[in-house]
Design goal:
elongated; 177 residues; single chain; mainly alpha; disordered C terminus; two-stranded antiparallel sheet; 18% helix; 5% strand
Length: 177
């Protein structure tokens, strides 16, 4: 879900809903269901205000800024819970192996992998910290500073560009264009 804005980062969130597999009264096979088993969408295909997505503590409806993965990430940040982020770097197939941790301490993550200039170690650190959302206040890809909203989809929508997943490079999203 996205909430476009004219400035900097769009508000974004990932929400999970279910699909009905059996008919039950007004619920038909294929209907979108919320976490409580209720219809999540109205006749026009809009999310009901009363719908509660699976990762939400309360009904969050079509409000992009409420519930979903965004709520989970905000709660983790508030409680200072570290995010475990891994990337397969080709040496160990156990994803959670220390060699695959996505962190500035992992020297196997090179500036070349991030499509940066060879000696741009400062850029490397910025890209990694941007992905990890290491601090609530940091420089954004648009060059502004201040409190950064934590949303799981913000890098995909920052500048309203299409990035096919097969050609996606995180540095494309962090670099001022």
């Amino acid at each position: 879900m996205f909430k476009p804005t004219a400035k900097s980062f769009w508000k974004g969130n990932i929400k999970k809903y279910g699909i009905a597999t059996t008919n039950n009264g007004a619920i038909k096979v294929g209907n979108v269901l919320d976490a409580n088993g209720n219809l999540a969408m109205d006749a026009e295909g809009q999310i009901e205000d009363t719908a509660q997505s699976y990762w939400s503590l309360a009904p969050d409806g079509e409000d992009v800024e409420e519930g979903g993965v965004g709520e989970v990430l905000q709660t983790r940040m508030k409680n200072k819970i570290t995010r475990n982020i891994y990337t397969y770097l080709g040496s160990n197939t156990t994803l959670t192996d220390v060699s695959n941790v996505f962190d500035v301490s992992n020297s196997a993550i090179t500036t070349t992998m991030l499509d940066l200039n060879l000696n741009d170690s400062g850029g490397r650190e910025k890209v990694i910290n941007f992905v990890r959302v290491s601090t609530p206040t940091m420089r954004t890809g648009m060059g502004t500073t201040g409190n950064r909203e934590i949303g799981p989809s913000e890098p995909l929508s920052t500048q309203g560009r299409h990035y096919p997943l097969r050609r996606y490079k995180i540095s494309d999203l962090c670099r001022r264009q």
